[in-house]
Amino acid sequence: MELLNALILMANFVLVPALAYGSQLALGALGVTLIYGILRFSNFAHGDTMAFGTMAVILFTWWFQSMGINLGPLPTALLALPFGIAICAGFVLATDKLVYKFYRQQRAAPVIYVIASVGVMFVLNGIVRFIIGPDDQAFADGERFIVRARSFKEWTGLEEGLTIKVSQGITVITAVLVVAALFWFLNRTRTGKSMRAFSDNEDLALLSGINPDKVVMVTWIIAAALATIAGTLYGLDKSFKPFTYFQLLLPIFAAAIVGGLGNPLGAIAGGYVIAFSEIMVTYAYKKFIGYMAPGDWSPDSLLQLLGTNYKFSVSFVILLLVLLLRPTGLFKGKSV
Amino acid sequence: MSFLIGEKMTGGYGGADILHDCTIAADQGEIAVIVGPNGAGKSTAMKAVFGMLNIHSGRVMLDGEDITALTPQARVAKGMAFVPQTSNVFPTMSVEENLEMGAFLRRDNIQETIDQVYELFPILGDKRRQNAGELSGGQRQQVAVGRALMTQPKVLMLDEPTAGVSPIVMDELFDRIIEVARTGISILMVEQNARQALDIADKGYVLVQGRNRYTDTGQALMNNPDVRKSFLGG
Ligand SMILES: Nc1ncnc2c1ncn2[C@@H]1O[C@H](COP(=O)(O)OP(=O)(O)O)[C@@H](O)[C@H]1O
Ligand SMILES: [Mg+2]
To answer: Structurally, how many domains does chain B consist of?
Structure first.
């Protein structure tokens, strides 16, 4: 009984939230890693691209809500997602035409792209705050829970309850579907293979007649879609605030680098590594130890390794360790 | 006139000229070999013929047509194929995917050509699902040649196809290249192993400092005492 309670406790506060958060990071990191692999630079604007795409989704969601359109138990945002992706893709393609294309023609060094992307990041930052404001925005609707703590306790008779939010369920399912679709695209279609070829060996891809403009365009569209999906899922799960999305850049980059930059499988693994580490390190184990320890003994302190305010340091530490010990990441990526 | 000819090419990478009035050519179904010391400009001459660098005088002709102004991609479409000296495969893609990418410009069924490549290089058929980056040096060169053959080219250009492979594998590769030439494809090849290469060459070029030093049949060059002394190690 005690053991079961302890396990449910961990599932409720670590496993379920980390799975959801990890899926969101994985989707974000996939976008970063694709851009790195194919366009060959670290896109610092990715977090704000997520914010921009999510903002578009929110605006469409509000519009649908005002017309009385909804998905019943599911959030209306899912319906707005394709529209948000289209807007975000359009925006990202415009930045490519206005900014990055110039540097591509110059065959600029990667660091110049990075700085350019920082510029794009600031512009995006401003645009998003100008349109939707710097504050928290609520846009989740529909059913809130798949499993409620109270009904779980009544149903199992356990002391601990398990909560699974609809947003968490949707996050995990969407992530699985999106990743499956992405891998199918990259491994089975002509265009997807040409993107991998371009990423592997640009010169040889050109010699083989692969059109670089098309590869670049498709890459941006996919990155925009991934960013919008990741951002919307995160917003549904937590809340939407532009600054939070900017901050997400760190764990997302950590995830992409941990997995091995340029390696999509690595990005997914990295997302979960970062999410689980962050949540496990900031979780207070007091109650858990209470269940596991014999008798009624319970530790006095919270047994929390790190306050949640410091959660970003977890990404930093992991990033540092990986860069020191294994610069190409867990899965063979490109060395940074 | 030869089927493919880079005629009196002068040019380089933007700085000082590397090539000076350099001429190389290959005839249909023939093997032409370029030899010469390191840094002589052999790779540069190949790139010039393939349109990968600017030449400011001279021209490149293919089957009587002036293609000097065409991009490398356009030359691929015209029936030329090039295996670069380094980075000549897609390392994280499978052998079969490498071949598919070679045929990227083709819209017809490529299965027959893939089968022909596997017939030419049986080991590639066995390893078709394996990533090219995981193969041995000799196998990787076979993938590189196979990829280039996927466009069903009329001219195949090879820059040191036997670099870094064992003598046995080298003989094996040369045999395959002769086989390819017998199907009517012109071969223009740079080789470090000058003696063995000239042995199978119909025509040979000795390049020194971006200029033609000797041009003759492979056999004549092998018998030329000056060439032997300076370039074939006696
Ligand atoms: N990408 C390049 N940019 C500038 N110079 C180059 C480049 N590649 C080769 N060179 C120079 O051109 C000359 C000829 O090189 P290369 O054609 O590679 O010789 P080879 O293939 O005969 O060994 C060398 O002096 C080399 O330093
Ligand atoms: Mg060379």
So the answer is: 1
